[in-house]
Amino acid sequence: xxxxxxxxxxxxxxxxxxxxxxxxxxxxxxxxxxxxxxxxxxxxxxxxxxxxxxxxxxxxxxxxxxxxxxxxxxxxxxxxxxxxxxxxxxxxx
Length: 93
Known about the structure:
Layout: E1 2-4, E2 7-9, H1 11-45, H2 49-77, H3 79-91
């Protein structure tokens, strides 16, 4: 465990958190793709106007989630990873 300016930092906890963020992003995108595929399959056979409206709204929401997933990945692969590396190097001194 490292100490930076009085803060106790455990690089292994940071690593675990990064893994959790990555897993969250992967599972979120996987589930969105499954749901999208299922909706498209239903939409082919079910010509209900309310369902099509719901599908359109889902598509709008889905399109907002992709950038969020990208931001999660950029954060955990960028600054959070750099912080983990610094904390680990400091801990190994």
